[in-house]
Amino acid sequence: MPTAPPNPWPTGTAEQIEPLVRRVLAPNPSPFTYTGTQTYIVGAGEGCAVIDPGPANAAHLDAIIAAIGEEPVLAIMCTHTHKDHSPGSRPLAERTGAPIVGCAPLAFDADGPRADEGFDPDYAPDRVMEDGEAMTGPGWTLTAVATPGHVSNHLCFALEESDALFTGDHVMGWSTSVVVPPDGDMGDYMKSLDILHGREDRIYYPAHGPAVEKPRQLVRGMIGHRRQRENQILRLLADTRRSPVDLVPLMYKGLDPKLGKAAQLSVTAHLIDLERRGLVSREGDGWLAR
Fold first, then answer.
1. Selection from 171, 170, 142 nearest residue 157 by Cα
2. Is the whole-model pTM more than 0.85?
3. How far apart are alpha carbons 36 and 263 in whole angstroms?
4. Is the Cβ–Cβ distance between 241 and 283 less than 8 Å?
5. CA–CA distance, 36 with 223 (Å, rounded to integer)
6. For residues 138 and 47, is the Cβ–Cβ distance under 8 A?
7. Mind listing the pLDDT tens digit for each residue in 166-189?
8. Gap between the Cα atoms of 129 and 78, Å rounded
9. Which structural domains are found in the chain, ordered by start?
10. C-alpha–C-alpha distance, residues 41 and 28, integer Å
């Protein structure tokens, strides 16, 4: 996993990245958020949508409001409900009067330590968007693309006027997405990658990291990478029972210790998917290839 580029980062500054899109970076860098969560503002002055308002951080909220100026906010749209994406929707709705739309709410209590930012239990959308539904404004159309896998309620949003796709955490240019069971599902994640590979989007704008200018090429590589991980697991379990803790150091050479738990959870997600497909079985605390 690559390290973040050197500071300074454009935190709190509105960047015009194409005629209909502005980007504001939140001050929440971490090993899982890269330089921070990127909030996108879609619109050209007559009415906008805010995608992934980010954490409930006062400085970030002020930066979003400054970037919007006097433009009406027609919708606050969330790709999913991790705490680095959706909590800012509520204070932003209070200040703008805009409805919260997008992904479905998700109440999920995990046992034990987690390897992601955790879920937002207070997310309460005014409208849940289904796959293929659109939100429209002056000169723009955002269509929901259901992409479960990273989490079960994940959506991407397609900006029809410029063939751009806001990919949330599903596809990022700097890293593969962490899939954390039980809500994260590797089988669903792979199916969602196949859906994106079949599209003709010009560019991806992820919630973390740089824009992806060759999206189908990246997605094809991500699918291949995950299949390589599957094959690696099957080889390592061919004649020896191993647990995810055993597999991680064999699969991830030179891994940053801070990412060890995330790697274990990703391996577990692969094992659950392989078990469903009849390729591995659980034996006590370990797994073995069939």
1. 142
2. yes
3. 20
4. yes
5. 25
6. yes
7. 999 999 988 889 899 999 999 999
8. 10
9. 15-224 (3.60.15.10), 226-289 (1.10.10.10)
10. 18
